[in-house]
Design goal:
Blueprint (H helix, E strand, L loop, with lengths): L11 H21 L2 H20 L7 H24 L31 H7 L4 H12 L4 H8 L3 H18 L7 H17 L2 H5 L2 E10 L11 E2 L1 H9 L10 E7 L2 E7 L5 E10 L2 E8 L19
Parallel strand pairs: 1-6
Antiparallel strand pairs: 1-2, 3-4, 4-5, 5-6
Helix pairs in contact: 1-2, 1-3, 2-3, 3-6, 5-7, 6-7
């Protein structure tokens, strides 16, 4: 994956690239749930923009033009991805995004909850156009006149789509611990208990209906179905050892706005990610990704430089 795509020529086009790339990458990532594919979509949008400008075409609003192309490319991608998801092995989770490093894909999302894996999985239930309308309106605050132009529908139709999508999302929208400090504290206690094999320390930290999702994509260790309930999850983690993944190092990280850890092997390659959903002072969901294709962008050599 090219995490540092070549921008258009310097000067005015370079300024457009620098100013709009974070927003466009945020839209693409929220739509497709994969940072590498989001990068490709944004790169393609800028290449098309560059070609248009090179022919002498006057583009009044680069933001509107690029947002339109990015969203339409993402809609097409989602449509084709749905076919592939039908044959995906086990649970599907989005590619993890390390938001504590403030990468571009997270800079234009106002709340960490809107970047959470739980929220992105929920968006998978929406149709491609529904997802685009909902995100553009409720997450990125586009006007309905802009959204109508982007998705090629009337404003009234877009309003109806937004209401329908919002109702669907609100009924299932995940809730998280409001205090970031409290979330991090509980997460550290959880991982310390797991690392020490202290099952008694886990029981109080887990919600009664806690669930574990594991995404190996048929290429990494994972369970074929989610694991439900405090007792089963406690037993699961009592025998959990990162060494089984080939991990020699564990680092705390903010994963999609939620507390988690990243595991690295001796060659500094990411071999696993765990993200926690915490609400009401307990862990309500654990999301583990071991599919190597979803972890390549986290390898030490290609990690993004933190943005001030």
């Amino acid at each position: 994956m090219d995490t540092n795509p070549t921008p258009p020529d310097s000067g005015e086009l370079g300024g457009v690239y620098a100013a709009l790339r974070p927003l466009l990458l945020s839209i693409a990532y929220e739509m497709v749930g994969a940072i590498g594919e989001a990068e490709d979509i944004v790169q393609e949008a800028f290449l098309r923009f560059h070609r248009e400008v090179a022919t002498g075409k006057k583009i009044e609003s680069p933001k509107a033009w690029l947002a339109t192309v990015t969203t339409r490319l993402a809609i097409n991608h989602v449509k084709s991805a749905r076919v592939r998801r039908e044959t995906y092995v086990g649970s599907w989770l989005p590619e993890p995004l390390l938001t504590d490093a403030a990468p571009d894909a997270g800079r234009h999302v106002e709340t960490s909850d809107a970047l959470s894996m739980a929220f992105l999985v929920l968006l998978e239930r929406l149709g491609p156009v529904e997802r685009a309308v909902f995100l553009l309106r409720d997450v990125f605050d586009f006007g309905f006149d802009e959204i109508a132009e982007i998705v090629g529908k009337s404003e009234d139709n877009c309003r109806q789509i937004a209401v329908r999508a919002r109702r669907h999302v609100q009924d299932r929208k995940p809730r998280f611990e409001a205090s970031r400090k409290r979330r991090e504290e509980l997460a550290r206690r959880f991982f310390e208990a797991v690392g020490a094999g202290r099952t008694e320390g886990l029981v109080d930290l887990l919600a009664a209906d806690v669930v574990v999702y594991t995404d190996g994509g048929g290429k990494g260790p994972a369970f074929p179905q989610p694991i439900y309930g405090r007792e089963r999850v406690t037993r699961l983690f009592s025998g959990y050892r990162p060494e089984a993944l080939g991990a020699v190092e564990q680092r705390f990280a903010e994963v999609n706005g939620q507390p988690g850890v990243v595991f690295f092997d001796e060659e500094s390659r990411a071999v696993g990610v765990i993200a926690l959903d915490i609400a009401g002072g307990q862990v309500v969901a654990v999301r583990t990704i071991t599919n190597p294709e979803k972890l390549r962008h986290l390898d030490e050599p290609s990690r993004p430089v933190p943005v001030d």
